[in-house]
Fold this sequence. Notes:
The complex is a heterodimer of chains A (146) and B (96).
Chain A: H1 2-27, H2 31-56, H3 60-90, E1 108-109, E2 114-115
Antiparallel strand pairs in A: 1-2
Chain B: H1 4-29, H2 33-58, H3 63-92
Helix pairs in contact in B: 1-2, 2-3
Amino acid sequence: MIQDMLCAVLVILGTLFIVIAGIGILRMPDLFMRMSCTSKATTLGMGFIMAALAVRFPHLEIVTRALVITLFAFLTAPVAAHMIARAAYVSRVPLWKESVVDQLCNRYDRCTCTLESCPVVDDSMTGRFRDEPATEEPRRDEDAGV
Amino acid sequence: MTHFLDIAVPVAMIFLTATIFMAFVRLIKGPSFPDRVVALDIMTTVAMGLIGLYAMETGEAIFLDVALLLALVSFLGTVAFAYYVERRQLATGSSE
């Protein structure tokens, strides 16, 4: 009885995370925000469902398979998300127009995929790409002392 | 009291199917190519959860092998798409 209740709670929790990720992939304005809200939440929800399966059927064959699936997903999801995000940034997928900070702007060489160590202070906070003309004044805190 | 899990698992399956449809909408109208790759990745992860729920419904452990295989193929596909996008950008210098 307590086992079934725990299993149901895990299933509901996993479904909740996955549905929130689904709403996020529809509603978020920007590729990077969409990735931020989906790649973690779906993996966690899937892990909750696998944990529910392991609680429901505590046999060795099911528990080991659920554990292996969860471990594999938790290992590979960040790698895959990082690779897509870097490829998207390299191929200049635009940020949301109201994004405030783009910390790779003017520091990341898209041709050689290297990051400069010395930050360019001037307009590194404008969220513009290097070859786009900056039409707005960069938002900066006047008392930042940089 | 009716068995609580008999209600929770089908309802969860309905919600997960709705999530697959949401990701499919993003796959159709995603403005850029990486959007579509992300939507495909989400769809496979949710499908793994759906397979887990179906295994819970039927009590068959063999479905979990399908989920494991789906995880492997999904990761390889995502990495291949990301590599393709990056190399295409570096080779041609054009986006999309």
